[in-house]
Amino acid sequence: MGAAGMATAAGNAVLVYLVLSGRLCGDAAGDGRREDQLISSAVSAAAEAARRRKEEARERRRRRKEQARERAGRPWPERAPDGWGEAAAVAARTVRFTWAETLGKWALGEVAFGIKYYMRQQGNLQHEYAGNDSVLLDGPEVRQELISLLGYLKLCMYFSKKPYKVFLEFGGYDQNDVLIKKSKARLLKPAFTVVRDRSSKCFLLFIRGAISVKERLTAATGAEVPFHHVLVQEGHVYNVVLGYAHCGMVAAARWIAKRAIPCLSKAVEQFPNYEVKIIGHSMGAGIATILTYILRENEKLSSSTCIAFGPAACMTWDLAESGKDFVTTIVNRNDVVPSLGIASAAKLRTEVMASSWAHDLRKQIQQTRFLGFVNRSVSFIRSHVPFVSDPRSKVVDVDMLQSQTSEAGSKSSADTHAVVKKRPGLVCWSCVAAQKQTIESSKQTQDLENQIDTTVKTVKVTDEAAAELVAINLHELNLQESDEDDAGREEKESALKETDEEEAMELLETLTDEKQELSPSTSAQEPQQLYPPGRILHMVGLQAAAEATTSEQGAQEEVLALYETPRHLYSKIRLARSMIREHYMPKYIKTMEQLIEKLPEEDIDDQLDSL
Questions:
Q1: What is the pLDDT of residues 421-478, one digit of tens each?
Q2: Which UniProt keywords apply (predicted)?
Q3: CA distances from 17 to 6, 26, 30, 31, 312 (A)
Q4: Angstrom distances, CA of residue 213 to CA of 57, 91, 209, 302, 341
Q5: Contact 524, 76 (CB under 8 A)
Q6: Which tens digits make up the pLDDT trace of 63-116?
Q7: Dihedral, 157, 158, 163, 165 alpha carbons, nearest 10
Q8: Is the pTM of this model over 0.85?
């Protein structure tokens, strides 16, 4: 009985052990399934949240697109604003437009290094203005014309830079000779004056250039607006020239015309032998040319002429050609303003981006001991400190200066588990967003990184690699999975993959939309190529043939000449170190005085006859 009791007790103990062990295993399996269910629900919730965020982002982009189309489709003002509210609205729109066409398109590297490199690469291009299509002007008649133009330029400079009283004293005018005086400029309302010049028997209308902030905003309102010129002969319309012109200058010219036409009409009736001349420099010259087109449509002022010194490119080809008989444009050497416009700036940016300025900059950095040390240090820090690799960081190196380029193809990381967080779709973004990303630049970046003492392990993550790493981590956690769990895991991985691809495509769409919103003018229509108007006289400085062989010894002397140049030469921006400095009026005056000294006072035939 004792042995039988012991056997029964042992059997019961075995049964209890088996039951309890089975329950424990069942509980463990149940816990694993519950954990999988929690993971599945978390993934589903994350996917649903990502889908909602994506829809919200698409809705925001759609609204921004509609707003951008509305702004682009809204016509620019064709007249000066009446009140401060309208002026503030125009100023705000001008600032947005200027930002979109300048810093919104040009990257920091292109402005700081690309333009300088391209300028050095193309060299001095003044000889292009003295080509076969240009006509050399020489002789005493040209000299007398230059003397007359120089006098008008000095008067224009005194009106723009000096107090009005000094201007009157320099020109020999008194208060009775002043017909209109508007010395204070407003937005789209430039400063101008009308005086009677008794020595030349002319009514001179001077328009000041962009000196104050409000005048510069007028010049910055550079959108193209429709403009036409009606050609009148003997009181009959015989032709209409259609085209586009600079918005701010058109509005300013119409504002001046509204105030000047009644006064000039009365003055011409009182002094019928007097002529009307409109004179300006820079922005004032562009306004003066458009104003001349407007005044000539008036029967009493149909003989008005214009003298424009360094005018901005302000009208399309047909309009500019139609003013050859009454507009004289003078350009000084490398002055960039007559060629500066939205279309020409876009061409220049394309040429700068096509140049190898980044490669040249890397060579300069490597050859300079200090800059090379700084660049290697920055690269080392970016490769080891994760947050420094963020493009929003304030620490930048050569690669971050390139236009619209992200990191070069592969990311440096010391931790492979950190790489799992990187979205593989971002590799596609960097390839698409970079307008110019060459294999050579990535190789050179790797060469710079190889110079660092610490070896940096570069890992390129794909969807398969991410899935493998996830699987490895799951095995390390000793999670037992059944066939159903394998199927669920595959669904999760495919869902993650689709989410990554969708986020990458969403990022691509966002970047594309932002790029289009930065330049609303291109979404509506292509920018018109604008030109300087009328007959163009270009003062060109050519290198002397004798000095060409001694170019290494110092600065070369220039031989000045005056050419009548074709208009198509001003569709391209030619960079030079002095392209801004030579736009100012003192430089114009100095060049014209040198030309006047060079040109002969009499013809050679007249000199021989006198002998």
A1: 333 333 333 333 334 444 344 444 444 444 434 333 333 334 444 444 434 343 443 4
A2: Signal
A3: 16, 14, 20, 21, 98
A4: 38, 11, 11, 34, 20
A5: no
A6: 777 766 666 557 777 778 788 888 888 888 888 888 877 777 777 666 667 777
A7: -150
A8: no
